[in-house]
Please model this.
Amino acid sequence: MSKHHAIEAVFEDGVFRPLAKVKLPEHQQVSIVITVKDDLPAQLLARVAENDGSFAFLTAHAEDLYSPNDGEAV
Model:
């Protein structure tokens, strides 16, 4: 029978170090599923790109896919 419990950890010097206390007996064998977290949240990356002008090209009329002459909006 297996129990699933997620914990946060940091990988340092070849070892996973839990960020909170883990209640397990010493030498308990476990299976680890790794989900890598982004270093920077997506909202922060979007804000930086927006403030940096990375998306400024989108305001150029040459970048428009459709013109008023293309018909009704879909």
Summary: The beta strands are 9-12, 15-18. Residues 9-70 form one domain. Residues 45 and 51 are 10 Å apart (CA to CA). The chain has one domain: 9-70.
